[in-house]
Design goal:
Number of strands: 5
CATH class: Alpha Beta
CATH superfamily: Response regulator
Number of helices: 5
Largest sheet: 5 strands, parallel
CATH architecture: 3-Layer(aba) Sandwich
Radius of gyration: 13 Å
Low-confidence stretches: none
Shape: globular
Helix content: 25-40%
Strand content: 15-25%
Structural class: alpha/beta
């Protein structure tokens, strides 16, 4: 069963490239999209346990991916949050991991590693 994925990204171009790539390279089905931090928090809360992976950009149209991470720090054991950003500084990596991100990848040169991470056995799928 594909990873039920929420894509939190404000760039239409990046979303249009990531959605098929996630399906083809990471066995992930994008079940919801959000462009702002508040939309993302609402979508994730409304889906409850029905998502496996949230792919979070740090800089959104409104708000920050850090806000999304903070709001979802307490989540089901099968749910993973990964930051996919153009700004993978050590400070952003540290803050993201402190706020509950499971990993952080650079959009510009770590996409292969990101897709491999999505396929790793440590990424469980939704129960049932």
């Amino acid at each position: 069963m594909p990873l039920q994925t929420v894509l939190i990204e404000d760039s239409t171009t990046i979303r249009e490239a990531l959605i098929p790539a996630l399906a083809d390279l990471a066995n992930a089905e994008v079940v919801a999209l959000a462009e702002t931090a508040s939309e993302a928090v609402t979508v994730l809360k409304n889906l409850g346990n029905a998502w496996d992976l949230a792919v979070v950009d740090l800089f959104l149209r409104e708000g920050s991916g850090l806000t999304v991470l903070r709001a979802c720090k307490e989540r089901a054991s099968h749910q993973r949050m990964v930051v996919l950003t153009n700004y993978p500084t050590e400070e952003m990596r540290r803050r993201s991991l402190e706020l509950g991100a499971d990993a952080l990848f650079d959009k510009s040169n770590e996409l292969d590693r990101f897709f491999e991470w999505c396929l790793s056995p440590g990424i469980p799928h939704s129960p049932g």
